[in-house]
Design brief:
nucleotide-binding; 273 residues; binds adenine; Probable 2-(5''-triphosphoribosyl)-3'-dephosphocoenzyme-A synthase; 70% helix; 15 helices; binds ligand LTSJ6FE6; mainly alpha; single chain; globular
């Protein structure tokens, strides 16, 4: 039952994120943002296609009894490669959840490991699982956006986030979510913008084709938060305006959406939502 709960929390985190709206440039039930090849139904199909992978991640985490957690990651990665294939099959090759397969898979596996090993620090477990990942993965190939951005800008992207134990989730987004109040949609939108105010989103860098977009996005998100967020008229207006700008410029926030998914998952695990 406990194991099933972790899998359910992962699936719920994916679905809660996609129904939250209005998200600038991202897919939600009212708007496909800057993703004409996607819609909310595709995200539901994509989420269900990786449910089995989360069950596998739970099994890997709860059964692992070695001393080197990088070996647990090696097992997870193998399952993750198959999950990526299942996701692309379900979406007709559209990249809905590639980042989430990687990041949420890590959190699910770490949560299951913690429950079975009297440990309560998923973030530290992830750090141990992914120790040396940037050095191992990046610097040679330049096929994916992450590999190209490392060679061009020296940015480690999602791998660097993982190796640092997702500090933006641990130290910023989760404590922020914990102190929000009001309806859940507003709480999650404000948490997303808190993430946007600090993240280097490789999806946004790729879409903009430059690094200058990052301080601009940080500034916009700060402005939104200073206005009081979605529960104020001014905050709501700014968010709608940002959605218009993001669509006009074809900007997206895929990495930020992924960190919101992780924050929601940890919110369930810690009883914050
Ligand atoms: C480690 C992998 C995820 C490899 O991916 P890649 O080398 O591509 O690495 P990155 O580009 O660095 O990141 C991948 C995705 O991670 C999300 N992300 C970005 N920035 C951050 C961040 N700062 N923190 C956390 N997460 C971040 C983001 O995912 C979302 O965006 C996706 C859409 O992006 P993309 O396709 O690039 O962009 P579009 O322009 O929208 O699409 P096109 O139409 O141009 O195609 C979406 O999936 C969101 O989830 C980044 O994209 C991992 O896949 C890996 O290890 N691969 C090797 C094989 C493997 O082992 N797989 C199993 C893993 S368990
Ligand atoms: N709602 C969303 N829209 C676009 N890309 C995403 N990646 C994860 N969630 C997303």
């Amino acid at each position: 039952m406990e194991d099933e709960k972790i899998t359910q929390n992962a699936l719920k985190a994916l679905l809660y994120e996609v129904v939250t709206n209005p998200k600038p440039g991202l897919v939600d039930p009212a708007d496909v943002g800057s993703h004409p090849d996607m819609d909310v139904y595709l995200f539901i199909d994509s989420s269900l296609s990786i449910e089995n992978y989360f069950s596998q991640a739970v099994k890997i985490g709860s059964r692992f009894d070695g001393g080197d957690l990088r070996e647990m990651f090696a097992q997870l990665r193998q399952a993750g490669i198959d999950a990526e294939k299942a996701m692309f099959k379900a979406t007709n090759n559209v990249n809905t959840h590639k980042g989430a397969v990687f990041s949420l898979g890590l959190f699910v596996c770490a949560a299951a490991y913690c429950r079975g090993h009297e440990n309560d620090d998923e973030f530290a477990v992830i750090q141990q699982m992914t120790a040396g990942l940037v050095k191992h993965d990046l610097g040679q190939k330049h096929e994916t956006a992450g590999e190209q951005q490392f060679l061009k800008y020296g940015k480690g992207g999602v791998r660097a986030e993982a190796e640092a134990g997702y500090p933006l989730v641990r130290d910023v987004a989760l404590p922020f979510l914990a102190q929000t109040s009001g309806d859940l949609n507003s709480r999650l939108l404000d948490t997303l913008m808190k993430i946007v105010s600090q993240i280097e989103d490789s999806n946004l860098i790729k879409r903009a084709g430059n690094l200058e977009v990052i301080p601009w996005a940080h500034e916009q998100a700060e402005k939104y938060l200073c206005l009081g967020g979605y529960q104020t008229e001014a905050g709501k207006e700014l968010l709608l305006e940002l959605n218009r700008i993001f669509k006009e410029k074809n900007y997206s926030l895929g990495g930020s959406a992924d960190l919101l998914i992780l924050t929601i998952f940890m919110g369930f695990e810690r009883g914050i939502i």
